[in-house]
Amino acid sequence: MRVIGIDLSGPSNHKDTVMAVFELQDSELKFLNLRRNISDLEILEEIHLQSQLDEVVIGLDAPLSYEDGGGDRIGDKLLRQFIVSLGMKSGSIMPPTFNRMVYLTLRGIKLTREIENLCSQNPISIVEVHPGAVMGSRISPIDLEYLLVYKQEMSSRSFIKNWLGEQHVTQLPSNIDEESHMIDACAAALGAWHWKDPLYEPKWLLPASAPLHPYDYCC
């Protein structure tokens, strides 16, 4: 199984979009490659390539639906409550139609449609993930302080890089802690792995509710 974590940015901000590709081997996510500054077409090409080799599981860090009428989805409210209970800040979860989020939501929904239309050799499954919550729900409470500042401090990202190894996300390149988007892509893959693998389970899950919310939402 190939597991792909994508930290998506808005459609005009390719430079902050990161895709991390892993292979599940011997109960470990083994790093294969990482792509930065990528367009929608490049994302689709990579997914198509991996799907010719094995089943593909994709964890997307972006809203994959929105609430009809605007505002929070049920999942946004529930996940926000969950991360606050862990000691995390609520501001990392915003309504998909919020001004700062709407173009990211547009790109996420567009990409899922295009992924679903790929002619793949093997199954492709998609889950919406929140990388910060993936990490916050697994990290020790005494180490939560590293997570709260990892977007600003490289020393905290270095700690989290080592922590990811303890979660069996292995063979990460030495520069993975250079920016938070790379850490987030790896965490998205970790969340997608635990969502798909029957040996694990998400720490928080809201099942899909078709037709308006067609993808599971988890951490």
What does this structure look like?
This protein is of the alpha/beta class and 219 residues long. It has one domain. Helix content is 37%, strand content 19%. It has helices at 40-51, 74-86, 102-116, 131-136, 144-148, 154-166, 180-196; strands at residues 2-7, 18-25, 28-36, 56-61, 124-129, 169-170, 205-206, 217-218. The chain has an 8-stranded mixed β-sheet with strand order 6-3-2-1-4-5-8-7. Helix 1 (40-51) packs parallel to helix 3 and helix 6 (154-166) packs parallel to helix 7 (180-196). The longest helix is centred in the last third of the chain and has 17 residues, at 180-196. It is globular. The mean pLDDT is 95.
Question: Element order, helices and strands?
Answer: EEEHEHHEHHHEHEE
What class do helices, strands and sheet pairing give?
Answer: alpha/beta
Percent strand: 15-25%
Radius of gyration: 16 Å
Terminal CA distance reads 19 Å
Based on CA inertia axes, which overall geometry fits? Answer: globular
Total number of helices: 7
Mean model confidence by pLDDT: 95
Helix amount: 25-40%
Features:
alpha/beta; 37% helix; 7 helices; 219 residues; 8 strands; eight-stranded mixed β-sheet
Set out the fold topology:
Layout: E1 2-7, E2 18-25, E3 28-36, H1 40-51, E4 56-61, H2 74-86, H3 102-116, E5 124-129, H4 131-136, H5 144-148, H6 154-166, E6 169-170, H7 180-196, E7 205-206, E8 217-218
Helix pairs in contact: 1-3, 6-7
